[in-house]
Design brief:
54% of the residues lie in helices and 17% in strands. The radius of gyration is 27 Å and the shape is elongated. The model has no long low-confidence stretch (mean pLDDT 83). The termini are far apart. It has seven helices and six strands; from the N terminus they run H-H-H-E-E-H-H-E-H-E-E-H-E. The protein is an alpha+beta fold.
Length: 217
């Protein structure tokens, strides 16, 4: 009974560590918050305890066999958090955080109190540091723009790519209409193309017929 009480303390310790990691995630309004991280950390600790001590009297005992399945199991859980939307991957950091939290729970379940506590502090510190508004840690945001313009003598396509700071169109169609050649090109730019900027471009450049943001594609 005394030994089982110690195992229970380890699980409760994992709950506290998971809560701390999840609380930081909740403050940043992430999909996986306190409940997810707490349960993952406690569950990993429980499986680690069961793997290490429940089968110790078995002749072919191997403590790593059950614990090793935590890594792959959390991988499936993390895959469900990752989505691809608007030409970008979302939820990858959250999934990685949950996976790392499982490692913290495993360390707590294995009795590595200092390692699990230190890893928790490191995870929270890394998340806080990488969320600082610094160019080094900022991910570039890409915007897809569809532009309809008069081809002219062929030089207008170069003007459009220059305006949006790109080397070429990712997609370009041309059609003849009312005796003119109209081109519809799609570019992916890092510029912040606001409604004000679109209005200014349409005013300054007569050969541009329309500009459309394709954020939902």
């Amino acid at each position: 009974m005394a030994e089982e009480a110690i195992y229970l303390v380890r699980i409760l310790y994992a709950v506290a560590l998971g809560f701390a990691i999840g609380f930081e995630r909740k403050l940043r309004f992430k999909e996986a918050g306190i409940r997810t991280h707490t349960i993952v950390c406690a569950g990993s600790a429980l499986i680690m305890v069961v793997s290490k001590y429940a089968f110790s009297d078995s002749p072919d005992f191997d403590a790593s066999r059950v614990a090793a399945q935590i890594v792959s199991g959390i991988g499936f859980l993390g895959a469900g958090m990752i989505i691809y939307r608007r030409q970008a991957v979302h939820g990858l950091t959250t999934a990685a955080g949950v996976w790392a939290t499982a490692g913290v729970g495993m360390a707590a379940g294995g009795g590595l109190y200092l390692v699990s506590a230190g890893a928790t502090v490191i995870l929270i510190a890394v998340q806080c540091i990488l969320h600082l508004k610094c160019k080094l840690f900022t991910t570039k945001k890409y915007t897809r723009i569809r532009v309809c313009f008069d081809a002219g003598n062929g030089e207008n396509s170069g003007k459009v790519t220059e305006i949006f700071g790109v080397e070429h169109f990712s997609k370009l169609n041309a059609e003849r209409k009312d005796g003119k050649v109209l081109c519809t090109g799609t570019v992916t730019t890092t510029k912040d193309v606001s409604a004000t900027m679109i209005a200014e471009l349409l005013t300054e450049h007569d050969f541009i017929r329309s500009i459309e943001r394709c954020d939902d594609e």
